[in-house]
UniProtKB/TrEMBL annotation, chain A:
GO CC annotation: plasma membrane
InterPro entries assigned: ABC/ECF_trnsptr_transmembrane, ECF_transporter_component
Keyword terms: Cell membrane, Membrane, Transmembrane, Transmembrane helix
Compartment annotation: Membrane
The protein's name in its UniProt record: Energy-coupling factor transport system permease protein
UniProtKB/TrEMBL annotation, chain B:
Alphabetical list of Gene3D superfamilies matching this protein: 1.10.1760.20
Superkingdom field: Bacteria
TM spans (from-to): 20-38, 50-74, 80-104, 111-133, 139-160, 167-192, 227-244
Keyword Manganese: no
Protein name: Energy-coupling factor transport system substrate-specific component
Keywords tagged on the record: Membrane, Transmembrane, Transmembrane helix
Keyword Transferase: no
Length: 251, 280
């Protein structure tokens, strides 16, 4: 189960996923989207070592979306002319079903590509690559800090909710009661987070966060010159292909 | 208090940053105009049209340009606040689900940072929030430009003193929701075929049944859902900010300089005088 593919740098994986998303949007054909999904995303997710994690996330995010697409466009597509089934205000049309198929495969490929890349990467390795590549230090800090804070904030929110419930907070079905609960949980949560942030701000300033000099990283650079070349090369290929697809193909 | 005494306060040249900001705003506006004006042919045509690509690259790229222009100019205090806002967006988005609220609440952190640290920090928080959330939920990614505008408008509303008069807060939220809804509609329509949650889907289906094009239906749905969502978010943020200890909320340079909140100037209780708080 601990079999992780550790061939490429996270930045390279994200770049490849992003460029494939661009290709899926450019070609905009359900057969191409389906091919990307089955021939690239599926093997990549299966060998990532986090296949179950990716599958669950994909199901939770894309599942309802695909169902809604089918319902929405399968039943309500006023532009459709070939009516397969008339249901009064709703009508099943061939054009609507085709649109749902095209959107559905596109959405599935988009979700699959990005989720597979994001869920199989090591965040710390990504941040360290960005530092070595000279990305804005503030940006790298915001990325790393937000990813670290998110589970912490969720934890603290749950704790505060339980504490307020112990003090008599009861959430009824009325929206006003829910809104009150939101403020009762939000106020101590945000007050605590802001105090922490003020402390961090002073600590960072004392350590020269605002300085502009060059930085060193404790961790070694896992990025290679070859991967950098591959990233730029792939980007160039996608740009050339896209311009040919929209301009050159028709002339 | 925020500027370091020992290090030179070197940032990118202001002119470069201004060019990036203008470029970002132009890209986002041009993307929106292109999508809205060219839309009728696009959505019926289906395959072979660059609407989806334009939506993703235009809104995400415009957002990236905005961040590149804003980030070098922010002080440490604002930079440290941004991850807090992003984490709040994510956890309140989830909390709205667990409380069973029919709204998203996923811009609460963005609005909070806009109010406490200003429009620039708010806009950058919006973009980065969607970019980071996009790692776990790719559907958030193309909505980055809309989030930037929400953070920007929240900051501007705070700067123009709308948070000093509590009855203006819901109005500011409503207006922000209108702009946010308009910007989100083409993303929903061209990237995802207007599929969203159960509630938003029912609204889109109703407008489609009346014969609206997909973009018009998505826009009407956005205007309905986003205005209510932002109205509630602005109100909740105002309630929370006013309930914070005075020392905490007065610690923010933006809040003090622009007298964002009632009694935010000097800390004495006599500063509730409206005329004194009007203009310095």
């Amino acid at each position: 189960m601990r079999f992780r593919r550790r061939i490429l740098n996270p930045l390279t994986e994200l770049t490849i996923a992003g460029l494939l998303v661009v290709l899926v949007l450019v070609v905009d054909d359900w057969r191409f989207s389906l091919a990307v999904l089955l021939l690239l995303v599926l093997p990549a997710a299966a060998t990532s070592g986090r296949a179950v994690h990716i599958a669950v996330a994909f199901g939770v995010l894309a599942g309802p979306m695909l169902m809604f697409l089918l319902l929405l466009h399968g039943l309500f597509y006023p532009e459709g002319e070939r009516v397969l089934l008339d249901l009064g205000p709703a009508a099943v049309t061939a054009e609507g079903l085709l649109f749902a198929l095209e959107m559905g495969t596109r959405v599935a490929a988009f979700t699959g590509l990005l989720l597979t890349a994001a869920l199989s990467l090591e965040v710390s390795e990504l941040l360290e690559t960005l530092t070595h590549r000279g990305w804005n230090r503030k940006l790298v800090y915001v990325l790393g800090s937000a990813l670290g804070l998110a589970p912490l904030v969720a934890d603290r929110a749950a704790q505060i909710t339980r504490a307020q419930q112990a003090r008599g907070l009861v959430v009824t079905r009325s929206p006003l009661s829910k809104l009150r609960a939101l403020v009762m949980v939000g106020r101590p949560l945000i007050a605590g987070l802001l105090t922490d942030a003020a402390d961090r701000s002073r600590t960072l300033d004392a350590r020269g966060f605002a300085g502009t000099g060059p930085r060193t990283s404790y961790r070694a650079d896992t990025d290679t010159a070859a991967q950098r070349a591959v990233r730029w090369g792939l980007l160039a290929v996608v740009v050339v292909f896209t311009s040919w697809w929209y301009v050159g193909r028709h002339t | 208090m925020n500027s370091s005494l020992t290090l030179p306060s070197g940032t990118a040249a202001p002119s470069t940053r201004r060019i990036l900001l203008i470029a970002g705003a132009v890209v986002i506006a041009a993307t929106y105009l292109y999508l809205v004006l060219v839309q009728p042919a696009e959505i019926a045509g289906g395959a072979g049209t660059p609407a989806g690509l334009t939506t993703l690259l235009g809104f995400l790229g415009g957002g990236a340009l905005l961040v590149a222009g804003i980030l070098p100019g922010l002080n440490t205090q604002a930079v440290v606040l941004m991850p807090v806002g992003i984490a709040l967006n994510i956890s309140f988005g989830q909390l709205a689900g667990t409380l069973g609220l029919p709204i998203y609440l996923d811009a609460l952190g963005t609005v909070l940072i806009g109010v406490l640290a200003g429009p620039a920090a708010g806009a950058a928080t919006g973009v980065l929030s969607n970019a980071i959330w996009g790692l776990f939920n790719p559907f958030a990614l193309p909505f980055a430009a809309g989030s930037a505008v929400i953070g920007l408008l929240a900051g501007l509303a705070a700067r123009w003193g709308m948070f000093r008069r509590l009855y203006l807060v819901p109005v500011a939220g409503l207006l922000t929701g209108v702009v946010g809804g308009l910007l989100a509609a083409p993303v929903a329509a061209f990237m995802f075929g207007a599929a969203g949650t159960m509630g938003t889907n029912a609204i889109v289906a109703a407008f489609r049944a009346m014969g609206d094009t997909l973009l018009v239906a998505a826009t009407k749905q956005g205007l309905t859902s986003d205005t209510i969502d932002k109205l509630i978010i602005f109100t909740v943020v105002a309630l929370i900010v006013y309930a914070l200890p005075r020392r905490t909320r007065n610690a923010f340079t933006f809040v003090r300089r622009h007298r964002v909140l009632l009694g935010a100037s000097s800390g004495d209780s006599g500063s509730r005088d409206e005329s004194a708080a009007e203009r310095k």
